[in-house]
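>> received
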Amino acid sequence: MAHNQIPRQAGIRPSPRAVLGRLSTGAGRGTRITHTEHLPPRPGTHAQWPSAIRPEVIDAIRAAGIERPWAHQARTAEHALRGESVVVATGTASGKSLAYLAPVLSTLLDGAEEPSGRGATALYLSPTKALAADQRRAVAGLTAPLGTGVRAAVYDGDTPVEEREWVRQYANYVLTNPDMLHRGILPGHPRWSSFLRALRYVVIDECHTYRGVFGSHVAQVLRRLRRVCARYGSSPVFLLASATASEPAVAAGRLTGVPVVEITEDGSPRGEVVFALWEPPLTELHGEQGAPVRRTATAESADLLTDLAVQGVRTVTFVRSRRGAELIALIAQERLAEVDRSLPGRIAAYRGGYLPEERRALERALHSGELLGLAATTALELGMDIAGLDAVVVAGYPGTRASLWQQAGRAGRTGEGALAILVARDDPLDTYLVHHPDALFRQPVESTVLDPDNPYVLAPHLCAAAAELPLTEPDLELFGPATTELMPQLEQRKLLRRRATAWHWTRRERAADLTDIRGAGGSPVQVVEAATGRLLGTVDAAAAHTTVHEGAVHLHQGRSYLVRQLDLDDSVALVEEASPPYSTTARDTTTISILETTTEIPWGDARLCFGSVEVTNQVVSFLRRKLITGEVLGESKLDLPPRTLRTRAVWWTVTEDQLEEARVHPQALGGALHAAEHASIGILPLFATCDRWDIGGVSIPLHPDTLLPTVFVYDGHPGGAGFAERAFHTAARWLAATREAIAACECEAGCPSCIQSPKCGNGNDPLDKKAAIRLLTTLLAGAPEHPPAAE
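>> returned
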């Protein structure tokens, strides 16, 4: 592809419409845009800061160029100063940081004047280290005129040991993450006693990211924090910042365990946003079972990043996977080298798993403008101030509308116009969305799903709480209704022992090490270069079987490596540098059994159920695929141990009479169920805050527990994450959208855009598209008019 360089005049930004116009020129480019949404500019609404904000803070804000606050900032500050926990859920770049910083800084200055010494303190929690570091820079710039009244410091895994003692003793604004709170601060709370005793505010930034199992863990960490604070005589106010979300006060209340006021009316201005939906073209290649194959979102996004860089348009491309971020950066660098040898060095990848010094260097280069384009995972999605971007390319729907708008909002953060492009993957949900734009642009963002009462989440936190301070009867109410049932089990397992009026932790090891709050389930696997012993990075334990198995291709900093050995006992993957012309994809097999049916409702003769299941999964092989086209080159067997998961699932059954009515003959039954299962997993993220990698599915023509044809969709986390339950409560709309997505696809017999799955353990065989449509039509005919209400 030719990339014509268009010089960009210094200080002049091209309009988003003009940039999109250039991208859509060329052979076949215009037909790839399925929809363009124009969001007009919006004026801002000013207000006055509350009178209780100290004048020094207002002067410092003015010195930063902000004369008056937006209306939502002033309202948030008012609630905070009144001692009311509050969540501000407004658009990206709407100034949420200032909304909570103004009352926090004012209170810290008040405390600095107290004769008692340390005065008030505040704790800032961020889901990522990068965001905490970015916030530290912002606070430093804002508080420079305030002298020593505000002493802000980052306290995370990258903080040198010699600095940690200073932070504990002297900092009054500590920026950290839930992981460090869980593993470091709470278990060592006596050393933090003066800080916790004076704790006035807890800021929870980007709180919409605390969903599923991770969110459930963080909810219990916050309850442990509240309990320890109460022991020291403090009761902090929670200030939460979120991307636009549905019912933010409900989600924030479930996360913190306290009543929360919500601020959702956005008073900030917004520049014009041009949002294009982009579908890569079909190729002449054929994939599994002879299905047509679209050009990959990876290759298409790399082309767009290349063209935008040539135009001088500062761009971030968001990618779902670490491997995808590396690939897009690598392809763009190679293509830019053909145009201008100075450009490849201005493109880079950014993802989790990099060493701290690598991440910091990339963040500095992005801030300075040295980098023109970045291919990033969601590690960069959250509110980092990367002002100056002109465009965002989203390579594949990120799983939720909230996340999509969060990523798109990275561009145009200085109030300028912005271009956002969603590039569809060859996937049922992506295909559905680029042809149903109303599902993106006319629907509210999702509710945040989390379940703090999940026993797999709650149990280790009860142990951690008991290790911090012996648990008493009054404490049990704080941790939720499931606590009373769990305590005897923890005693029986000899994890807790009751003495007099309290439960005590009985083991020598640290109770906080019982669980990984990210839900990874074990120690991260270290990726080590075999020849040198150099640590390249880490991979989550849960992902190791599928990503660093023997023979897997592993990408790091633009270099590719082959995995020579995966040592599960020592959690090490040994790799050596190589340049294979393919990527690898793991294959697995899954069986499922029903442990308990919690709820069951009739759908005509069919049944819709929700309950507990046990899933056994084993990675058995991997495919080698050509890098750009995705064409399958071969398959290799693997010998890895099976993994067992107890979780929650939604499932539906159909009867023989319904199969006859749907004209689904016995030889087509397996393919019909399998196709419906794949497509329903692909569509579920429209109805629950998950993506298809959070959930799994199994379809069986005759399941031994139901004795009927059955389709299961289950949460991919121990104890469940709330996604299957959400599917149960929205089943009629969810399965109707599934049927429509299959029927609307232009392929003849099924393809990755409708019924094929990228993670199918059976090689996408059997699948029957037409039988699946007839089966779902019959199933939906019996759906009740009044579906079960969510609790």
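>> The first helix runs from residue 16 to 23.
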